[in-house]
């Protein structure tokens, strides 16, 4: 019998599979299995055995019901984190696009400024933030700290400016939004390091010929921005929105609550249910925003 | 008199018509516009830089404060009685050299693994066709998008009772507990499920797709195997992507708290964990009960923690920014 020989494309398929094998194994053994287990946990009551094993009792949707209807703070935290994410995403995207455009220009000391602006990527560290937070809480105790910070950072009489805007008839909601942003400017700057990098990369890849043409045609800087720059970087806005949403959810209180439920109260089932609820919500937000943005996106190629 | 004024007027209008003067005027306007614009830009950048650097400056200056300076309202940013005592105590309590070296070994090993594994997988996705490729790549995207905390419990349990196919239990009756060691992280990274591995795979995939196919074909004709081609030709050409991933993984891994907490690593072996507990340690061991003063030690600790990563960042930042610009993040 003649041995069956593989075609070249078959051979290449096998090599390709070999290349991705480490990830594939890891994905199936750790990721997929864990994902399925989490769903299973969330649908049952988990009891931990003496030797470290566990026992599952199927309880249906009880954990979800408990998390949403009976747990003291969970739904409040969930809604608050969602609102925070939505508010932050808008601010971060606009801020980082603005900064990227500034940093993309040629001026003296650009390297230094870039160095400073990417510092938050390093400084935005779980460890250091944790430590500072603990120190602050020890000093003054929790909630009062944030308010005091905002006031001292601004260094101006906010009430006066607020009253001017209210007299001018600016809607209260808008004022609330803006003051909220100003108070959290540090957090927004800190969270937009990676986004700035991505936008700078995007700006660099815009062909210079487009700018030359618009200059010859007599377009103003404003028009150039809206007709050339913005459409050209718009595909990256989607990437940045996705990154921002995921990133801000990872550091939000929802995760903290789920973590504490698991490791201080040992209620694994409830914790899994909380995780799944928040993940589903994040995915929902991602799909909705993704659908909206990709409709408006302009693709050059 | 009137004739003189008329004469002046005529002269002036002539001057206005003079195209050279017109040009000069226009030039002056654009120049002043430019200056105004760069002034505004300077102010904006200065303000934001201040917001970024502000806390850092406070931390650094407070780390030199002595205990009398804290309660002295005239000492602002510059200590009146500067001291290095904060540093020397924190240095001891953190057991700095030991902690730092063990952290660095951990972080750099993981970085090496991330680069090797993620570039391999990225290359596999970029250059080879195999069944279900699109679905599998969607799975990579899923690992980026779904927050890791969703799967933290099963991961915890997996390594609480670590066992490959239940072999160990078959022979010795119990599984291995890998918690409190660094092995879980090594294992996860080795199988492409480490800290943000999905993102790195994506970056490498985009970069390799942008490289010309001709180099590989030339290598193939010269008789190089696929793996050899990847290692000696593609990986060398992917320098920007490699540096991007290296910096990201180094910094993020160094700062990571999530996995450290999840696998309950020993606080003494990692910088990020050590520094988050150093204030409590000093309050407890050295009987510094005043939080205003114990905070000074924390500031010194934070400075000591940031310095190594800052050095790496400053050294690599030029390549890093170039790398981001050239690597395929932009697609």
CATH architecture assignment of chain A: Orthogonal Bundle
CATH topology-level name of the largest domain in chain B: MetI-like fold
What structural class is derived from the secondary structure elements of chain A? mainly alpha
- The total strand number of chain A stands at 2
Most extensive protein-chain contact, per-chain counts: A-B, 90 and 93 residues
Shape of chain B: flat
For the biggest β-sheet of chain A, the strand order reads 1-2
Q: Level of helix content of chain A?
A: over 70%
How many separate structural domains of chain B? Answer: 2
What structural class results from the helix and strand content of chain B? mainly alpha
Tell me what the CATH architecture of the largest domain in chain B is.
Answer: Orthogonal Bundle
Low-confidence stretches of chain B: none
- The general outline of chain A is globular
Oligomer: heterodimer
Main location (chain A): membrane
Organism (chain A): Anaeromicropila populeti
Protein name (chain A): Carbohydrate ABC transporter membrane protein 1, CUT1 family (TC 3.A.1.1.-)
Keywords (chain A): Cell membrane, Membrane, Transmembrane, Transmembrane helix, Transport
In brief:
The complex is a heterodimer of chains A (301) and B (331). With 301 residues, chain A is mainly α. Chain A has helices spanning 8-42, 62-70, 74-104, 110-117, 119-123, 126-140, 143-154, 158-167, 172-183, 185-191, 193-204, 208-216, 221-250, 253-263, 268-296, and strands spanning 44-48, 54-58.
Explain what the structure shows:
- The complex is a heterodimer of chains A (301) and B (331).
- Chain A is mainly alpha-helical and 301 residues long.
- Chain A has a two-stranded antiparallel sheet.
- In chain A, helix 1 crosses helix 15, helix 2 packs across helix 15 and helix 14 runs antiparallel to helix 15.
- Chain A is globular, with a radius of gyration of 25 Å.
- About 5% of the residues of chain A have low confidence.
- Chain B is mainly α.
- Chain B has 2 domains: 61 residues; 244 residues, MetI-like (MetI-like fold).
- Chain B is 75% helix and 0% strand.
- Chain B is built from 16 helices and no strands.
- Chain B is flat, with a radius of gyration of 30 Å.
- The chains are: A mainly alpha (301), B mainly alpha (331).
- Chain A: Its main location: membrane.
- Chain A: Keywords: Cell membrane, Membrane, Transmembrane, Transmembrane helix, Transport.
- Chain A: It comes from Anaeromicropila populeti.
- Chain A: It is a multi-pass membrane protein.
């Amino acid at each position: 019998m003649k041995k069956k020989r593989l075609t070249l494309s078959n051979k290449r398929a096998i090599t390709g599979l070999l290349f991705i094998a480490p990830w594939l194994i890891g994905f199936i053994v750790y990721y997929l299995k864990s994902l399925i287990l989490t769903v299973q946990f969330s649908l049952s009551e988990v009891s931990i055995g003496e030797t470290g094993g566990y026992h599952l009792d199927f309880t249906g949707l009880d954990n979800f019901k408990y998390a949403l209807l009976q747990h003291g703070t969970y739904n409040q935290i969930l809604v608050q984190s969602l609102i925070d994410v939505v508010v932050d995403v808008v601010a971060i995207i606009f801020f980082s696009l603005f900064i990227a455009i500034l940093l993309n220009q040629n001026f003296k000391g650009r390297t230094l400024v870039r160095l400073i602006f990417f510092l938050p990527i390093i400084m935005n560290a779980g460890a250091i933030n944790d430590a500072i937070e603990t120190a602050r809480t020890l000093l003054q105790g929790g909630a009062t700290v944030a308010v005091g910070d905002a006031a001292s950072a601004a260094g101006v009489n906010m009430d006066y400016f607020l009253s001017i805007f209210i007299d001018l008839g600016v809607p209260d909601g808008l004022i609330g939004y803006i003051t909220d942003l100003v108070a959290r400017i540090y957090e927004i700057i800190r969270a937009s390091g990676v986004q700035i990098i991505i936008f700078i990369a995007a700006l660099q890849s815009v062909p210079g010929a487009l700018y030359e043409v618009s200059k010859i045609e007599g377009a103003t800087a404003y028009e150039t921005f809206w007709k050339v720059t913005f459409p050209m970087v718009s595909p990256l806005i989607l990437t940045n929105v996705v990154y921002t949403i995921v990133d801000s959810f990872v550091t939000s209180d929802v995760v903290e609550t789920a973590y504490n439920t698991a490791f201080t109260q040992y209620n694994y089932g409830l914790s899994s249910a909380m995780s799944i609820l928040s993940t589903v919500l994040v995915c929902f937000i991602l799909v909705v925003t993704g659908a909206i943005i990709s409709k408006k996106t302009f693709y050059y190629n | 008199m009137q004739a003189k004024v008329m004469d002046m007027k005529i002269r002036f209008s002539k001057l206005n018509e003079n195209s050279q003067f017109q040009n000069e005027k226009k030039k002056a306007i654009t120049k002043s516009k430019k200056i105004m614009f760069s002034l505004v830009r300077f102010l904006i950048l200065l303000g934001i830089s201040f917001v970024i650097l502000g806390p850092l400056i406070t931390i650094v200056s407070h780390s030199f404060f002595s205990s009398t300076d804290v309660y002295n309202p005239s000492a602002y940013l510059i200590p009146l009685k500067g001291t290095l005592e904060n540093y020397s105590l924190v240095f001891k309590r953190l057991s700095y050299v030991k902690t730092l070296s063990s952290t660095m070994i951990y972080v750099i090993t993981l970085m090496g693994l991330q680069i090797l594994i993620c570039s391999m997988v990225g290359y596999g996705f970029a250059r080879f066709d195999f069944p279900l490729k699109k679905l599998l790549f969607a799975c990579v995207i899923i690992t980026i998008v779904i927050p890791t905390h969703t799967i933290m419990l099963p991961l915890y349990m997996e390594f609480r009772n670590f066992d490959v196919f239940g072999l160990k239990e078959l022979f010795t009756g119990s599984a291995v507990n890998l918690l409190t060691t660094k092995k879980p992280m090594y294992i996860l990274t080795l199988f492409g499920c480490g800290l943000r591995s999905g993102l790195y795979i994506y970056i490498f995939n985009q970069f390799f797709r942008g490289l010309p196919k001709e180099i590989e074909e030339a290598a193939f004709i010269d008789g190089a195997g696929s793996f050899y081609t990847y290692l000696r030709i593609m990986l060398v050409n992917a320098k920007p992507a490699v540096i991007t991933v290296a910096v990201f993984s180094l910094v993020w891994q160094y700062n990571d708290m999530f996995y450290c907490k999840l696998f309950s690593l020993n606080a003494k072996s990692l910088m990020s964990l050590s520094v988050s507990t150093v204030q409590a340690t000093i309050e407890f061991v050295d009987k510094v009960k005043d939080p205003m003063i114990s905070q000074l030690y924390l500031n010194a600790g934070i400075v000591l923690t940031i310095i190594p990563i800052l050095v790496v960042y400053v050294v690599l930042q030029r390549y890093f920014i170039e790398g981001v610009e050239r690597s395929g993040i932009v697609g």
